[in-house]
User: Fold these one by one.
Assistant:
Number 1:
Amino acid sequence: MLRDALRRRSGGAAPALLTGAALAGLLMLTPLVYLAVRSFERGPAYVANVLTRPRTGQLFANTVVLTAAATLVCMVAGTVAAWLVVRTDLPGRRVWGVLFALPLAVPSYVAGFGWISGFPGIVGFGGTLLVLSSVSFPYVFLAVSATLSRGDAGMEEAARSLGLGPVRVLLTVTLRRVWPAVLAGALLVALSVISDFGVPSLMRFETFTLGIFTRYRSTFDPTPAAVLGLALVALALVVTVAEARVRGRSTERVGRGAGRRAGPTPLGRWTPAGMLFVLVVVGVSLGVPAYSLTVWTVAGASAGIDGPHLVATALDTFQVAGLGALLTVALALPVGVLAARHRGRVVRALENITYLGFALPGVTVGLALVYLGIRVFPHFYQQLPMLIAGYAVLFLPLAVGIVRTAVSDAPVRLEEASRSLGRGRMQTLARVTVPLAAPGIVAAAALVFVSVARELPATLMLRPTGTETLAMAIWSRTGASQFAAAAPYAVLLVALAAIPTLVLDRVLRRRGGD
Amino acid sequence: MQITERPTSHHWRLLAAGAATALALTACAGSPAGDDAAPQDGATAGEAAALTVYSGRSESRVQDLLAQFEAESGIPLDVRYGDTAELVAQVLEEGEASPADVFFAQDAGALGALSEAGRLIPLDDEVHEGVVDGYVAADGTWTATSARARVIAYDSQELTPEELPQNLDDLLDPRWQGQIGFPPGNSSWNTFVTAVRVDRGDDGARQWLADFDAQNPERFNNNHGVIDGIENGQIQIGLVNHYYIYSKMEELGEENLRTRNHHVGGDPLGLVNVAGAGVMDTADDPARAQELVAFLTSETAQQYFVDTSGEYAVRSGITSTVYDMPDITELEQPDIDLADLRTLEETLEMLQEAGMS
């Protein structure tokens, strides 16, 4: 049904594409169906009752303020960081580029622990904002640096030649060009801040997601938590639609020729200011967690390191993260291609749906898969396929955005040429579109890999017997206040996640630069 | 096309290498998963099927004990660790098809909720034989396996036990102005406040919190911080769980430690909470599931708890060889049903209003 609707609305896309996209849409509906069923099982009056409690409003307000603030901080920090690394002569900018991407590999709860053990007074709104911003700004950094490095200095040079100063050019021409990338990154920041539980819990700042966990913990009843989850979906929908609206009004590059990379802007006497910015950002996002991990490790040397267990958990992590990345990218591809090439109401709705999972706490998505999975596919329950499907629901939006951008950037003329030369739709997709978008697809896979590697609540619920990830090992040790024993696992997780982060950084910043 | 093809093949190699590695790992891991699935369908006789345990108690605290059960009984366990509340939610969503045989919880409230939902089956009397009165569910569906108590930790260089508060109201004496430490936001503190609400009603609890706040108590990030505060003379007394001084003792040696525990009987200040276990209605083999719960209340397991984590045994006469602690029968539980401590939401609301969250 969805496939037919897509076909009618999407102007003759390949059937395989539509099937894939419909499958992705169906999978993404899982949490929504679950939340709706659970929320309304006691009637609408109960839903209204949960939603109208004064505390619910307070939590909602806290979440909106926190999300807005963190998104703003990340938009500014991520964009400035990307500009410094890609477009200026800042010393050591290649190294900074890698370090700016690396916080993606730091689980937010590890960063939170790092800060709170060093600065116990940081709890509250400020600490929550600081830590969440420090682990989320790479979303903006990566998106913006990809766009900036994709060449095309033409507009800026034209503006300069027409008499605009360098600052005016930066603020008008350059910023306008990267604006869609800033927004795409900001959307991911906003949704991940909305869904984060670890940091608000450590920092004792009461957000909506923390409220959902409190519901489970106090009433041991999934229904009120589901009602709050539905409200979170509504908030995510507002954010997603708003981003699409704002992005829709922005201008895209219209030139047809190959873009040319701009030469670096000399910072001159502003170099110290640039260095200061870089050092502060790296210190906040990596330095403090790294310092805490070092302290834990040194303190724990006496406790001993269980080498074989360390290796086993690393292999398990690699396995689930690798498979999660593969499935997620396979599903993101049809959605991304449709979103880039066939705008229409149904496609837009499909794209929006994919983002909703990202705004939900992992425990809610996990419970949705438990609820539907054990009823529909009992034989796959707590088996690898269901766990991997869970990761796809959680992280599809990370991949869809990058794939969509990559496909949009590939010249549609080449596809038209392929079709005119007698190639079928599928052949064109496989031989032209996908290869052109390959860097974006690899980047998407790397981003999903990192996110899966640090995921916890859904993994705990759905993992197959015997599977233990690094994130699980960290959690079980820090839960018993055994920070020393947790440290080696945390170090290994960051190291493992650093590999795809490096790939991601290389791929995104090399794009079109050759 | 020259321009696009070069980076392309490179990227595909990357992706293909990642895919191949992941698939190879799956192939390795695939076969044991398949073996595990078979006994679930109840086919193989002779080979012992694993008991599935949902454990809200952390792995590092209980895995050695559970391994001992496997060795002694010959029954293999498949333990799924998680947060107690999330595991309850999971079991409720799984419904009839749940693979869980035994539920091992961190709090009494979780077991109460499962029991209320009809998900726990009554335990045989032998299972909790010897467990002290009051530590088995009234309907017999679960038993406590270990206990922890709220205490007043105090500076033994400055104070004698006789001078210490004996109840909630004593704590409001001007003598303690600025001298009390507590860990706001900590879950055991929240449970204590819930106990105050159950004990005094919401208005009484609100009044008590306001008076307590007027004492200018010192806030600490966690229970360990409260103990440190006493050690360095910042405060004289602190509201914590009983076992937090033990790790400090190990670190400094008992003779170098100023802090001591003071047990308050019959008052929310001395609330005793428990971890416990029950058998699920979905247990494939209830008899063997009961065997595990019986083991958890056995003298062997009880000795393990008092020695490794410094929790109280729920049997009388188990003496810790490591920690200096009273017998559980010497603790006087306030007149509070632990199953009533399930209104955390309202507690958090009240703490927020009082500016103490």
Note: Chain A touches chain B through 69 residues (CB under 8 Å).
Number 2:
Amino acid sequence: MIRVTLPYHLRTLALVNGEVELVLDGRVTLGSVLDALESRFPVLRGAIRDRVTLQRRPFVRFYACREDLSHEPPDTVLPTAVIEGLEPFLIIGAMAGG
Amino acid sequence: MSRVRVLIGTRKGAFVLTADGQREQWEVSGPHFAGWEIYHVKGSPVNPDRVYASQNTSWFGQMMQRSDDGGKTWEAVGNEFKYEGVPGTHKWYDGTQHPWEFKRIWHIEPSLTEPDTAFAGAEDAALFKTTDGGRTWQECPSLRSVKSDLWQPGAGGMCVHTIVIDPKNSDRIFIAISAAGVFRTDDGGRSWMPANQGLKSPWELPDPDAQVGHCVHRIALHPDRPEVLFMQKHWDVMRSDNAGESWSEVSGNLPSDFGFPVEVHAHEPETIYVVPIKSDSEHFPPDGKLRVYRSRTGGNEWEALTAGLPQKDCYVNVLRDAMAVDSLEPCGVYFGTTGGQVYFSGQSGDTWSPIVRDLPAVLSVEVQTLL
């Protein structure tokens, strides 16, 4: 079970409180977690990454176990602590003013 | 008894204001979508409880929301706005060609006859249409075949910000783009023609006969006379008596002919409203006085409407989609400011009062008259 923490605006959009829990089959990668998240919450499609290119939106960041994974490729395997559900995978809005 | 519902989009959420036909006691609901930019909120004339909202942030992109109970509850609908085919390029600020990139929806125009049909005006400029209540959107691609390599962004971006459907002929639609101009279709969006003859933009467009490239800020018509159009251009207030075939200037005695909104009285097709702004580089009222100007002669002769509006030290702006009228008697006129005030006149503009005064910067104001 993968725990995903969403930023406030995406929680309100997806109508969830707190963390989201996802169950994945196969490899737990940056891309597969986002695929599973968007599959469960279709309203998030386009809000985290581009619908067509699947590139991360510029003001969205990915963190896990205090590491910035924002610039890692989609097939990056997430840390063991995230895969085992001990740590959350964090999706956050970048500090960009406003 | 009649009621009025005012739909307000702001930089930080949407607000819904309601009142009975007296329009004296207002109930404020919101913010809906708190923290998001709401460029536009508009209801269907066929089913007034169906309301669409354009929701956007730089962080998370474009969302579309739909309400089927007049704005009490909302459902996220489709947000996939895909340009048809190869998107191509348009003119960039430096004169080079730049690829089309979707950024946001500026304006939503529900069909006058079909509750599931609506149009959406996009930045970068394109027109999208839904026929399933917003679940899916398809581009009307022929619009971008009209000399679009010459379109270029204005300071606010290159956007379809105005969509006006002819109430007597739903196949005729006018749209306006900054900075490309007015375009008209007579076949429901299958083909488009520029409708900019008579517009003068000597500083930006040295060619006096340029068919596209004009920075039109807003157009409006009265439903009884859809062949008569009024325009607030970047500079100049204009009028067309032949459905956009040609335009003539009616700025007359305005203190400045720069501005954003233009609106038409609900019952008097020759009574129009603008809000003069000092200049393109100083987006606030001349002399710090917030004045709506009304012409009862379809332009050229204007009177300042000041009663109830701040007449000193006022430096707000009124954006292009932030003025609307209701269809009660007397006609109610509403406008919102970048300072967060929404002013209302229940006497066709003779006197004004704020119905809310501390919202986030107002991006759009629409009014539904509920009978």
Note: The mean pLDDT of chain A is 95.
